[in-house]
Amino acid sequence: MNFLFRFYSFYLSDDKGLARKMRSLIGFTPAKLSIFKLAFYHKSASNDKMNAITSNERLEYLGDAVLGTIVAEYLFKKYPNKNEGFLTKMRSKIVKRQSLNKIADKMGLDIILNEYNQTRLSRSMLGNALEALVGAVYLECGYNGTKRYVINKILRSYLDIHELEEYDDNYKSQLLEHCQKNGQVVTYKMLAKYKFDKRDRFKVAVMIDGKKLATADDFNKKSAEQTASEKAMLTLGLIKIVKPENADA
Q1: Tens-digit pLDDT profile for residues 32-83
Q2: One domain, residues 212 and 127
Q3: How many domains does the chain have?
């Protein structure tokens, strides 16, 4: 029966263009094409009061849980001699918002998002769509099929796992560790919460011993705190701006 649905999706459906993009992206033509289409509808693009079921929020929730489990299992098997702390840190590096945003960008999900959302795209929408896509694959293929997709088409295709072992861009954690060593207290203060493109946007400040050192804005409060922490570390000279290799001298 799935064969018939997939044949219809690819050749006869009004959304056959999406079906063909999905085949290239995930390796097969979806039988439940409407679920995959929903994965690319962000709540900010819907005027429907029931946008929880007309956007990708629920799929994002499902995909987040499935992705976290798959990554945890993958790392558990890949690093049989590593402790819980290492595994937890590695999982966090992979599934955190910034990482998912970068992966989704490399996958070209922004092109599909632009087709279904009449709003300015933010970086966080990319990661949300990736989680929603994983949720859609799970509903279509179950856990084992989704695990194969995530490992082969995401982790092995878009991540250098060994480079990730040495890389740490958790600036909030690094700043906290630095300040603790120097007897300083780090706090974060919400300066403003406002609407931008129909979405909540947060402005936060990082404070060291009560003194404001840096501020940042983002659609996600935790992301704003990370960016503010990075700016604070630059101000303190703890990190340097890395200039791209192909940048002008």
Answers
A1: 999 999 999 987 765 554 455 678 999 999 999 999 999 999 999 999 999 9
A2: no
A3: 2
The answer as to whether 241 is a domain residue is no
* Among 60, 131, 140, 230, the one annotated catalytic: 131
Domain contains 160? yes
Q: Are residues 43 and 150 both part of a single domain?
A: yes
Of 147, 166, 185, the residue at which a domain comes to its end is 166
- The single residue of 57, 60, 64, 140 carrying the catalytic annotation is 64
* Two structure tokens written together for 170: 């958790």
0.85 surpassed by pTM: no
Annotated catalytic, 64?
yes
Per-residue pLDDT tens for 83-123? 999 999 899 999 988 899 999 999 999 999 998 887 777 77
131 is known as an active-site residue: yes
Strand arrangement of the beta sheet that strand 186-196 belongs to: 186-196, 199-208, 211-218
Question: Is 193 within a domain?
Answer: yes
Q: Can you give the residue range of the structural domain that contains 128?
A: 2-166
CA distance to 8, 113, 115, per residue, from 16 (Å): 8, 16, 14
